[in-house]
Amino acid sequence: MNEVTTKVARTKPRRSQEERSAASRTSLIESAIRHLLRRGLAATNMTEIATEANLTRGAIQHHFTSRAELVVAVVEELDDRIRRALDGFSLPASVTGQDRVAAMLDHVIALTASDDNIAVFDVWSASRADPALKERTLPMQHQLTVQFREFWRRNLDGHLSPELIAISFDITLVMAQGAAMAQLLNETPDGIKRTLTEAKTMLLEFVAARR
């Protein structure tokens, strides 16, 4: 190590305790998300999550008083990612008619197939058998649905009638939920893609007929 490198190493500021704690918490959440994707909520193990994050079981207990607390933190993180994906999508006014609806459907289909959506949908599905967890996550699920509805309305307002916006959203929501469940049930990617393509075609035909 030369003199310049040594000097930089010596002067590099050390992270504060608060920064180290935040980094540990983030590592645990990311580790938990990976476990959810690989094994599902039922097989998520606190000790394994801590080990994969290069932390001790004591560290995970410091940040999360229970497994449910960790799961809620995971859902909050995943919801935030999905929310940003919805908020960050906006079509120019020049895209109109069926092309506009098709572009939105493509974005929704890609988001539905994302690891983030699969993981959070797994938690929502599994929480049905856990009343305490359901009580914590159900309002979060409802809030994300509201965000999804706003995304749909914001991009179609002025291009479709309010009634058609509402109907097409309801159809798209059911389609996305069905695709997410199919992925959890390990349906083949080709089969899911084919079904979504057919659903997209039918929705576009429905919108064209009702405009």
Structural commentary:
- The chain has helices spanning 3-11, 17-39, 46-52, 57-63, 67-87, 97-112, 115-126, 131-156, 162-184, 189-210.
- The chain has 211 residues and is mostly helical.
- The N and C termini lie far apart (70 Å).
- It is built from 10 helices and no strands.
- The longest helix has 26 residues, at 131-156.
List its salient traits:
10 helices; Tetracycline Repressor, domain 2; Arc Repressor Mutant, subunit A; 211 residues; mainly alpha
CATH topology of the largest domain: Tetracycline Repressor, domain 2
Count of helical regions: 10
Mind telling me the CATH superfamily name of the largest domain? Tetracycline Repressor, domain 2
Corresponding CATH architecture of the largest domain: Orthogonal Bundle
**Strand percent estimate:** under 5%
Write down the overall mean pLDDT: 87
Question: Which range best describes the helical content: under 10%, 10-25%, 25-40%, 40-55%, 55-70% or over 70%?
Answer: over 70%
How many strands? 0
Order of helices and strands: HHHHHHHHHH
For this entry, what is the oligomeric state of its chains?
single chain
Round the Cα radius of gyration to an integer and report it. 21 Å
Low-confidence stretches: none
Summarize the structure in short:
With 211 residues, the protein is an all-alpha fold. It has helices at 3-11, 17-39, 46-52, 57-63, 67-87, 97-112, 115-126, 131-156, 162-184, 189-210.
Secondary-structure blueprint:
Layout: H1 3-11, H2 17-39, H3 46-52, H4 57-63, H5 67-87, H6 97-112, H7 115-126, H8 131-156, H9 162-184, H10 189-210
Helix pairs in contact: 2-3, 2-5, 5-7, 5-8, 6-9, 6-10, 7-9, 8-9, 9-10
